Predict the structure.
Amino acid sequence: MIIGVAKEIKTDEYRVALTPHGARELTDAGHRVLVEKGAGVGSLIPDADYVANGATIIESADDVWADSDLLLKVKEPVGAEYHRLGAHKNQVLFTYLHLAASRECTEALVAANNVAVAYETVRLQDNSLPLLTPMSEVAGRMATLMGAHHLMRPGGGHGTLISGVPGVAPATVVVIGAGVSGLEAATMAAGLHANVKVLDRNLERLRQVDIYFDGRVETIASSTLAIEEACLQADIVIGAVLVVGAKAPKLVSNDLVARMREGSVLVDISVDQGGCFEATRPTTHSHPTFTVAGSIFYCVANMPGAVPATSTRALSNATLPYVVELARHGWREAVVADNALAEGVNVVHGKVTYAAVADALGMAYTPLRSVL
């Protein structure tokens, strides 16, 4: 099989979908790996490292897309790439897609009449998300760091040090959602000696959080009133809510933000799925924040892209086994053999095969089994 690695062109995205380690695994197995020139530079991976491990460097992005049976990316295709989606008949695209938040991208994939497999909906039997987890870990840890930075006066906030100092109280950090990213955000905040509150609807998950932190963070059963009360006391609010494959619920209204302390900071990790704050809109690392009612919103849609030397390797470690299976067996046989990978299939030959995406966008849903 011919596997292509496209260079990311989304604003401020520096990750790459495959490392030289992955190229070596694939070429040793008899596959051909095409890497767009400069694709790894943002992650400190020169073209020569790919060549040394059996890959071929291709000058043209159009050629990489057109010649690849399996096309690997990190982020969803953007408008400038839509014309490439149908360049190779029966191509499989394997990347983060977050389609519930983008009708435009979904329609482009449907029109391309190929197969699109989303990293973020590959789901194991225990409901864990093996390809989303490493980036959730990165984003969760970054969320606290970015919140702490923007809470400082030069960052636009009210000038509070997240850790406080002896005799002066630390900042209060509220984390909404106790999943992977929320737990990582809370871990960083607690490590910085902040006053941390974690909200979630799942009481068993809150028990696990309480045990994990040995009671050092406050756990709160989430409700509309509980969120309001916590936000009104917060210096930093981190939205870390995930409904797999679907749009995130809007939990923090603009009215609530208007009642929060001026100069507070809200970080929305859920922005890829539409965000869990009413005012959320995607931002970039170049222009990461905007202001609503005196509060600072940080809503960068590709947070791990800021630390590509870390996140590229963490992502490739997780995706490579699935890439190997797709290359070895083809997508149909691979998803029949692996229920987790089957959960990742979002679009097949013009049909939306992931129910949450179809529901979010009001599009027709076709069960995957009917197209296998």
